[in-house]
Amino acid sequence: MSAGLTLYTYWRSSAAYRVRIGLELKGLDYASAPVHLVQDGGQQHAAAYATLNPQELVPVLRHGDAVLRQSLAILEYLDETWPQPALLPADAAGRARVRALAQAIACDVHPLNNLRVLQYLERGLGVAPPAREEWVRHWIRLGLDAVEKLLAGDRGTGSFCHGDVPGLADCVLVPQLYNARRFGLELAEWPVIARIDAACAALPAFAAAAPEAQPDAPAP
Predict the structure, then answer these.
(1) pLDDT tens digit string along 135-179?
(2) How many Å apart are CA 217 and CA 220, to the nearest integer?
(3) 75 alpha-carbon distance from chain centroid
(4) What is the pTM of this model?
(5) Do residues 142 and 190 make contact, with C-beta atoms less than 8 angstroms apart?
(6) Sign of the C-alpha dihedral, residues 116, 122, 126, 132?
(7) Model confidence pLDDT, tens digit, residues 76-129
(8) Residue (of 168, 196, 208, 210) closest to 71 by Cα position
(9) I need a surface site. Which of 7, 55, 87, 135 has the fewest CB within 10 A?
(10) CA distance to 3, 51, 179, per residue, from 182 (Å)
(11) pLDDT-derived band of residue 220, with 50, 70 and 90 as boundaries?
(12) What dihedral angle (degrees, nearest 10) is formed by the CA atoms of 82, 88, 91, 94?
């Protein structure tokens, strides 16, 4: 489906990865506008991009004259603009559960291991790389421990985070699991999460959104 969308993205950005999954699940065509977060001192800090997003973060989604920021807000915009297939359940309680699962990662885990935080730990506070990486693992493990309990203890959990079709919570979970593996954590610690991750990995939408499938990903 052609929708006139442009996504400002970076291949390894968890937040951009969430939005790519949502776009792929909805079958929406979009133009990719890579913003390299490390090259040139971080292209997100360039004046033109900082005008587009004063936070100097990715992603940003352009849809016509609309400029949309923050991955969860973008995903909900996609759901409201193209309602099918839905990323959020039809019932209020289901929507609240899915949002809570998504926010447990997007608000409580991801910010503590975002690039700018890690750069400040190293460059601003002089934290050595091994200690910085242990910081990342600590906060990811703490967050995934809680999410595992939330998923395992709720009958709303199905093949995916909520029921048997992927939705907003899965869009947020999978990129965080990519980061977990990147920093040496094994998903066997979280069997329900690992099962959901495997179900997502079997779907073409998740494969198309994966970091290594992006046009700005380094050549293997």
Answers:
(1) 999 999 999 999 999 999 899 999 999 999 999 999 999 999 999
(2) 9
(3) 10
(4) 0.96
(5) no
(6) positive
(7) 999 999 999 999 999 999 999 999 999 999 999 999 999 999 999 999 999 999
(8) 168
(9) 55
(10) 33, 32, 5
(11) confident
(12) 180
Residue from 180, 157, 212, 167 nearest 109 by CA: 180
Tell me how far apart the alpha carbons of residues 120 and 114 are, in angstroms, rounded to a whole number: 10
Cα-based angle 49, 51, 52 (whole degrees, multiple of 5): 65
Q: Which of 206, 178, 182 is nearest to 193 (CA)?
A: 178
Is the pLDDT confidence value at 2 over 60?
no
What tokens appear for 169 in the block? Answer: 């919570």
- The token duo for 120 is 């400040």
- Tell me which H or E stretch contains 32: strand 29-34
Opening angle at CA 119, ends 115 and 120, nearest 5:
120
Would strands 2-9 and 60-63 be described as parallel, antiparallel, or unpaired?
A: antiparallel
Q: What is the number of other CB atoms lying within 10 angstroms of the CB of residue 80?
A: 10
Amino acid at 181: R
